[in-house]
Amino acid sequence: RALIFPLLIRAGKPTPFFTFVLAFLFCVYNGYLQGRSLSNYAEYPSGWLKDPLFITGFIGWLVGMAINIHSDHILRNLRKPGETGYKIPRGGMFEYVSGANFFGEILEWFGFALACCTIESLAFALCTLFILGSRAKQHHQ
C-alpha cells in the first residue's frame, strides 16, 4: 500500500519529501522487523495453518485489506477531474465508519497479529491503532 497508493492518486496536496522519507524508512524497518521475527524467532506447531487463531487472523487480514483497498478506491474517486473542495465519502464501509480506510488497515494488522501470534506483530498492530485511530478521529471531526 505504501508504494502503490501514492502512484494511484490523481491530484491533491503534494507530500513533503521528508515525510515521504520517514514513512519509507518506517515501512522498511517494520518489514525487516516482521520478517526477521517470523523467519528467525517464531516457532509454530506443524498444524498451525489449520489452527483457529491462524485462520481467524488470516480472514481478518484479508477482510481488512479488502476494506482498505475498496475505501481507498472510493477516496480516489471522490472528485471529478478539476473539482476541488471537501466531499464526504459514501459507499462501502463509509456508510458505517467515517474513516473506513483507517478501519480497514487497523483490522488488517490486527488480523496479521492474530495469525502470527508474535509480540512484534502485536506491537505493529497497536502502533497502527494508535496512529490511525488519532488520524481517523481528526478526519471525523
From TrEMBL:
GO CC annotations on file: endoplasmic reticulum membrane
What Pfam families is this protein classified in?
Steroid_dh
Residue ranges annotated as transmembrane are 15-32, 53-71, 109-132
What are the subcellular locations of this protein? Endoplasmic reticulum membrane; Microsome membrane
Is Lipid metabolism a UniProt keyword of this protein?
yes
GO MF, one term, reads: 3-oxo-5-alpha-steroid 4-dehydrogenase (NADP+) activity
Q: Which domain of life is it from?
A: Eukaryota
Instruction: Look up the EC number in the record and give it.
Output: 1.3.1.22
Please state which protein family the record places this protein in. Answer: Belongs to the steroid 5-alpha reductase family.
What Gene3D superfamilies is this protein classified in?
1.20.120.1630
The residue ranges of the 3-oxo-5-alpha-steroid 4-dehydrogenase C-terminal domain are 14-141
Q: What is this protein called?
A: 3-oxo-5alpha-steroid 4-dehydrogenase (NADP(+))
| Main location group | endoplasmic reticulum
Q: Which GO BP terms sit in this record? A: androgen biosynthetic process; cell differentiation; sex differentiation
**InterPro entries on file:** 3-oxo-5_a-steroid_4-DH_C, SRD5A/TECR
Q: Which UniProt keywords apply?
A: Differentiation, Endoplasmic reticulum, Lipid metabolism, Membrane, Microsome, NADP, Oxidoreductase, Sexual differentiation, Transmembrane, Transmembrane helix
